[in-house]
Amino acid sequence: MPQQKADYADDTEIDDELDRLPDDETVEETVANLEERGFDVIVVDDADKALETVKSQIPDGVSVMNGHSTTLEEIGFDEFLSEGDHEWESLPDQIWGIDDDAERQTARRESQTADYFLGGINAVAQTGELVAADLSGSRIGAYPFAAGNVVIVTGANKVVPTLSDAFDRLESVAYPLENERAQEAYGAESAIAKQLVYRRETEEGRTTVVLVREQLGY
Which PANTHER family does the protein's record reference (predicted)? Predict the structure, then answer.
């Protein structure tokens, strides 16, 4: 069953100063710096608009994979990918239909080269860098190169002033929340095992950031 941030946030201590919605001027500067670094950016007001925007970015007939993202769950994308009316090839449905563990792991690795890979991010520096981490790397492995196209959806609450602040947010906001989620979902702790600093997109049009003016994800 999909989890929402509210399911475990109340049991988690985080640095609230690094989980606040920025003002309009900060959003505008962040967007300009992301675009200067080669990212396409679309700013939307809420989760419903975010889902519609994401759907509009993905053409019919392509393969689609998503890394685990509370944000994608909150906007309804995971449910739409699995059950919605679309003409995409849903790789998660194929992967989780495989009974053999080794075959399923191989399919997960191959899915990193999907035509469209969707996921979240843990921090957005106002200076234009994106920072994310996870335990296995399955969520962020496609971002740098493997996937044909990348769509990253993030709440504006992840915008922080500097790259240093982005690292702090990863440690003091994202990790505590993910660790709590992992324990509830899997009965095991998480870890910041594999970390990505996405400083620039060098392939024009490949990576789109959908920035939502709401408190979403962590």
Answer: LUD DOMAIN-CONTAINING PROTEIN (PTHR36179:SF2), LUD_DOM DOMAIN-CONTAINING PROTEIN (PTHR36179)
Radius of gyration of the chain (CA): 16
For residues 179 and 102, what is the distance between their CA atoms, to the nearest angstrom? 26
Is residue 158 within 8 A of residue 121, CB to CB? The reply is yes
pLDDT (tens digit per residue) in 17-52: 999 999 999 999 999 999 999 999 999 999 999 999
Residues 184-214 have pLDDT tens digits of 778 888 899 999 999 999 999 999 999 999 9
Q: What's the whole-model pTM score?
A: 0.94
DSSP 8-state class, residue 197: E
The sign of the dihedral angle between the CA atoms of 92, 190, 50, 7 is positive
Lookup: tokens for 157? 């609450």
